[in-house]
Design goal:
There is one protein chain. The chain has 137 residues and is α/β, with parallel strands linked by helices. The protein has a domain of 87 residues: Nucleotidyltransferase, domain 5 (2-Layer Sandwich). The chain contains 3 helices and 7 strands. Strands 4-3-2-5-6 form a 5-stranded mixed beta sheet, with no helix packed on it. A two-stranded parallel ribbon has the order 1-7. Helix 2 packs across helix 3. The longest helix has 15 residues. The radius of gyration is 27 Å and the shape is elongated.
Length: 137
């Protein structure tokens, strides 16, 4: 009598028992790690061009102030007046001591308005200031 090897007819497939768990973990991971844009920019502005720029790595430390074409100033989601800048930024500095204020100023804004904003930032003891620009090609 001759012995014949028999092969099993079972197909080996991808196990799908834990697929729902894997999808849930991936979904949770992306929900936790994704940061969404917090501010809607109301002010219209065009950034000036620069020959050299430096990128800030930790964007969580940055708070933006936009100065638009018509001299309008925006902090977070609201338009503010010049005398409102100091209390807002002072409160922000109390929450986050090493905050960097990034000024996004329209290219046609008068330097006097920029100086006034800088003086308000000094009153709030916000001395870490960044000026945003685009790269000149």
């Amino acid at each position: 009598m001759k012995f014949v090897k028999r092969r099993a007819n079972a197909e080996s497939g991808i196990p799908t028992e834990s697929m729902a768990d894997i999808v849930f973990i991936l979904l949770l991971f992306f929900m936790v790690t994704t940061t969404l844009r917090k501010v809607d920019v109301i002010v219209h502005f065009t950034l000036p061009k620069a020959k050299a720029i430096e990128k800030i790595e930790n964007k969580r430390l940055i708070d933006y102030i936009w100065i638009g074409r018509s001299g309008r100033i925006q902090i977070n989601d609201s338009i503010v007046k010049m005398n409102q800048i100091e209390p807002i930024i002072y409160r922000k500095r109390q929450e986050l001591h090493n905050v960097i204020i990034s000024l996004r100023i329209d290219v046609n804004t008068k330097m006097g308005e920029v100086t006034d904003v800088q003086q308000e930032l000094r009153k709030a003891d916000a001395l870490r200031i960044n000026y945003s620009a685009n790269v000149k090609l």
